[in-house]
Write a structure and sequence with these properties.
Blueprint: H1 2-10, H2 15-29, H3 37-47, H4 53-67, H5 70-82, H6 88-104, H7 107-124, H8 129-140, H9 150-159, H10 163-192, H11 203-228, H12 234-252, H13 261-291, H14 294-305, H15 309-326, H16 329-346, H17 351-364, H18 373-382, H19 386-409, H20 412-420
Helix pairs in contact: 1-2, 2-13, 3-13, 4-12, 4-13, 5-6, 5-11, 6-7, 6-8, 6-10, 7-8, 7-18, 8-18, 8-19, 9-16, 9-17, 10-17, 10-19, 10-20, 11-12, 13-16, 14-16, 15-16, 15-17, 16-17, 17-19
Length: 423
């Protein structure tokens, strides 16, 4: 089954179809007689979930922001915060991605929104295309760590853990990853002579950008405070985010038009359908693995080697990093969570902490070949060769792996905030 899956991916079959065809092939060749009606049953039950509605609404909120001026206002606020630093445009790209991550929940949406604005500006300022594209692509991965993260929602549904607690656990690691990318931006820009000018922080500019962007900047705060305060569930927060983005764009900023709504709804529905189809195919694939006792065999194999939780996490990290190179995060989470969750819980690892580690692992896959989605997005925006882009992205991959190790082996970095908030 694994060989067939990779073969289908290599020849360009869409991942949802590849997962579904592989699972059907496994059913047909299974030693046990499993009726094909299981396919329809698993497809339905895997997506018949109220929390998954959050994906649609967060997608819609992101689209509403990109069509209106909310995304641009967030970027202008990022300019006021860090645009005066060395490598200012690169730093703005990263900080804007961090702000936008608090709304979209999607690495692809984050990368596209910020990339369309910042990559052309960085090119005009003399930045190498590979560096500009790599900065935006890597910063886009933060969107799957900082809440509201769609992969965290998928993990919460699959593992049956609190999505609100998962959201809280991702805040500090997301900030750490963002700061590490900004540190690398500074180092590379200084080494290569990009953007030599360095200004000073201006309170007047900051205050103006804050006033203009306050309505957009309030949205992540409303989402997190509302969930942690028990005012609404994560799914309800997604609906509130979409309604808030609509009201602000239509009646406060007044740059969202009624004629824009049909295209916004179609794009949001299309992207949601893609994610849900992937989840359905991956659930069927993972169910077949479970039916063949693969999780138990895998757990026995690893536990025969060691039951040290640090070594178990090391082995799991390696598998996840490899899986992230080939699988969409939502698909990988749906397939691998039932495989690894019993194992890590058996050695005393918190399922919320493991979910965060899994998502950070798979976020690296967004910028690694052969199927790194963020890479293809920025390649199209920057119009550069894939080889040029890969050379630029390599230092950023190293930094993200260092962040992964730090967050994996210092769990207090991610778990102290949920503990304080009583999760």
């Amino acid at each position: 089954m694994t060989f067939l899956l990779f073969l289908l991916l290599l020849i360009g079959v869409p991942i949802a179809i590849a997962l579904s065809l592989t699972a059907v092939g496994g059913l047909l060749t299974s030693a046990d007689v499993i009726p094909l009606t299981v396919v329809a049953q698993r497809f339905f039950t895997s997506v018949d979930s109220f929390p998954l509605l959050a994906i649609l609404f967060f997608m819609l909120a992101g689209e509403l922001m990109m069509v209106g001026s909310m995304a641009q206002r967030i970027t202008q606020f990022a300019f006021a915060c860090v645009g005066w630093l060395r490598a200012g445009l690169a730093q703005v790209s990263t900080l804007a991605c961090m702000f936008f991550a608090g709304i979209s929940g999607s690495g692809a949406a984050d990368t596209a929104a910020v990339g369309k604005m910042m990559i052309p500006l960085m090119e005009k300022k003399g930045y190498d295309k590979g560096f500009a594209a790599s900065t935006v692509a890597t910063s886009g991965t933060i969107a799957v760590v900082i809440p509201p993260s769609i992969p965290l929602i998928v993990y919460g549904v699959t593992a049956g853990v609190s999505i609100g607690t998962l959201f809280t656990s991702g805040i500090v690691p997301g900030i750490i990853i963002g700061l590490s990318i900004m540190g690398l931006n500074y180092f590379l820009a200084r080494k290569k002579g990009y953007d030599n000018e360095q200004g000073s922080f201006e309170w007047t500019t900051f205050g103006k950008a804050f006033r203009q962007g306050i309505w957009a900047l309030l949205l992540p705060v409303i989402i997190i405070v509302g969930i942690r305060g028990g005012v609404f569930t994560p799914t309800e927060s997604a609906a509130i985010a979409a309604a808030y983005a609509f009201l602000v764009g239509m009646f406060i900023y007044r740059d969202l038009k009624w004629r824009d709504l049909p295209d916004i709804f179609i794009r949001s529905a299309t992207m949601t359908a893609m994610v849900v189809f992937i989840i359905a195919g991956a659930n069927l694939f993972g169910w077949l693995f479970a039916a063949q006792q693969v999780p138990q065999q895998l757990a026995a194999l690893i536990l025969d080697i060691t039951n040290n939780p640090y070594l178990v996490l090391f082995f799991v990290n390696i598998v996840l990093l490899i899986a992230g190179c080939f699988l969409n995060p939502s698909a990988a989470i749906t397939i691998l969570t039932p495989l690894f969750l019993p194992l890590v819980m058996g050695v005393g690892i918190d399922p919320v902490f493991f979910g965060l580690i899994m998502v950070i692992n798979l976020s690296i896959g967004l910028i690694t070949p052969p199927v790194g989605l963020d890479l293809f997005i920025v390649q199209g925006i920057a119009n550069i060769s894939f080889d040029h882009l890969i050379r630029g992205i390599f230092p950023f991959i190293i930094v993200l792996m260092i962040d992964l190790l730090l967050i994996t082996y210092v769990p207090q970095l991610s778990m102290w905030l949920p503990a304080i908030l009583g999760s």
